[in-house]
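Reviewers asked in the last cycle whether our approach scales beyond single polypeptides. To address this, we selected a multi-component target totalling 389 residues and predicted its structure end to end. The input consisted of the following lines:
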Amino acid sequence: VAIAGAIDINVHKPIEVAGLTLHINTIWATAAAGVIVLVLGFVVRARLTTGVPGRGQLLWETVISAVERQVERTIGPSGRGIVPLAITLFFFVVAANWLALLPTGSHQHLPAPTGDINLTLALALLVIVLVHAASIRARGLKGYLRHYVRPAWWLLPVNLIEEVVKPFTLALRLFGTAFASALVLILIGELFPTTLAAAPIALWKLFDMAVGVVQAFIFALLTILYFEAALRPDEEAEPAPQLLES
Amino acid sequence: VLAAGNPLVPDATFVVELVAFLAVLAVVARFILPPISRAMRTRQEEIETALNKGRQAERRLIEAEAQYRAQLQQGRHKARLFVERAHRRGEQLGREARQKADQEYGRRVARAEADIERAVERARRRLRPEEMEAGEPTMNEAM
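The resulting structure, written as structure tokens, was:
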């Protein structure tokens, strides 16, 4: 209880600009994550080779072909348009999550922006809006609306809830892990004397590194699967459950 | 109503984040992914053509080897035939030559025998009248 009182979970340093609340920390961190992704991309682009690829190019190529394969397998050729979105989401979320690795001790000056609901909700809503748009484009407005009363009309509320909940689960899953990770860092900082905190913090950040990749992977995969459900012909209605469980 | 500072409540930062991600997405989708994908595809095609070329070269090599063997075989066969034919021709020529020589020999022997016989006959004829009349003077006459 004593510790709980010492923890300030509001790590985003809100400022007021023209009556709007802005988390300046989150914005800087988001910019940093974006710049990291773009610099990585442009460096690879500048050294692009059709021969033996360097490490950076190999990384991009691995992710590109993995996403392309996943999209091809679940959606087919019609899903090719979402490949850039899924790839960018993956790299961006990894970069954002890994900002937590910066050796700023327990008090992060550049926190993982995924620990701010503003970023994760923005990503999730963007994805879901695009999913609905894709669904309408693939089935027509009528087919899209009919989808809500499938397989039976009385399932309408269930279908509605499912669709409304999707962006929030997507956003909260990513937010939750990054936010909790930041909290654990603060907790470690409070529990250990400063001289001893380095080891557990390093250990935790190592673990967090893996979590960051897994979360980015899940976010990109779910994006693809939501598109798959939206573009799937009407016959079958259930999304692949074994993949959604992860 | 929702407390400011509640980490689950979004605020204006949301818009900034959305715009920031859209900007990253646009740059990645337009300037980064296409060239990398193109490089990947080009490499795949290059590897494929190289493999195909290799396979083709292998096939051609096998074909060439088979052709070489066949031609060698054919050459050997032809050579054997030539040698055989030459052999036969030689034998034939030898036989013919021997035959001709034999014939010539026979002819000459026959002619010689005939000459001898004629000479003998002439001699006999010349001798006979002297036997009937008297020997020596006839000899002189004949001289």
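Helices of chain B lie at 13-132, 135-142. We regard this as preliminary and will revisit it once experimental data from Aim 1 are available.
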